[in-house]
Amino acid sequence: MIIHHEPVLLNEVLSFVTSHEHSRIFDGTLGLGGYSEAILKNFPESFVFGIDRDNQAINFSRERLKDYGNRFYAHHENFGNIDKIENINSFDVYMFDLGVSNMQITIPERGFSFQNDGYLDMRMNPDENSMTAAEVLRVTDEKTLAKIFWEYGEERYSRLIASAIKKSKSPITTTAELVNLIRDTLPAPVQRKMGTHPARRIFQALRIYVNNETGELEKLLKALKICAKKNSLIIFVSYHSLEDRLVKKNFREWQNENLGKILTKHPLIPSDEEIKSNYKSRSGKLRAFCINSD
Ligand SMILES: C[S@@+](CC[C@H](N)C(=O)[O-])C[C@H]1O[C@@H](n2cnc3c(N)ncnc32)[C@H](O)[C@@H]1O
Predict the structure, then answer these.
(1) Residue 12 · residue 35 · CB < 8 Å
(2) What is the pTM for the complete model shown?
C-alpha cells in the first residue's frame, strides 16, 4: 500500500520559519514527516525533533528521514505532555499540524475511514487506555452520543443518528456498519443535499472524542506558554473551528499578558490552487505567534 500525505500550507510554514532563527525545530505532530523533511531539506543547518502520539507515524518518519542522520530525532509522545520532554525550552520553532494523517485514514484496520471497512477503532495510540470508537458507541448513552456528534461534528441530525445507534439490534463494531446505519437513517434528500459523504461528520466527531483531541490541545497550549523558549516562533495549523478558536483565544491571552506578539491578524488559509491539488487542505488555518525575547 502506498501511503502519502500532502503537507498542508507548507509554503506558508516555510516562509515563517525562513524569517526566524531556525537552528532547532520542534515538530509536535510529525505524522509522515512532511513538514520535517521540508525543513531538513531547506535549512541544511537545522536539527528537527519530532513527536507523534501514533507509533506507526514515528516508525514511518524514522525510516523516511533516516538519511538526515543525527539532524533528525523522532520520539513517541503525546503533545499534551510536552512539558515532560527534556530540553523542551531549547527550540527556535514549535510547529503543530493538528488532526489526522493520511496514513491513519488510509489503513483500514485503524478504523478512521468511512471509505474502507475495518474495526471501528480510531485510537491514535492504543496504549493510552482510551476506548475504541466501537466501545464508545456501545457504552455511551443516547443523549451524550448526540452531544458528541453535535459538538465535534456539527452534525444537524445528531439526535436521529444517536437514537438509531442505540436502537440497533446488534452493536456497531465496524466502519462499514456505521456508514450503513447513517445511510439508512438519514432521509435520501438530506443525503443528496449534504455535498459531502453522509458519514463524514460523525466519523470526525467520534475521532475527536476517542482521542480527547481538544483536551490534549488545551493541555498543550497551557504548557507551551510556560515552556517555549524566549524569542521562539509558534505555528499551528488546524482543521476544525473548535481547535482554531482555542488557538486564537490562547494567542490573544498570551499577547494581552505581554508574552509576545500574534503574527497572523487573520489566519492564513490555503490558496485556490492548493485546494485544487489537495482538496483535504480546504479547511486548514494557520496561526503564528512569536514569544518575546526578554
Ligand atoms: C495532519 S498530521 C501531521 C502531518 C505532518 N505535518 C506531515 O506533513 O506529514 C497530524 C498528526 O498529528 C498526530 N497527533 C494528533 N494528536 C496528537 C497529540 N495529541 N500528540 C502528538 N501527536 C498528535 C497524529 O497522530 C498525526 O500523525
Answers:
(1) no
(2) 0.96
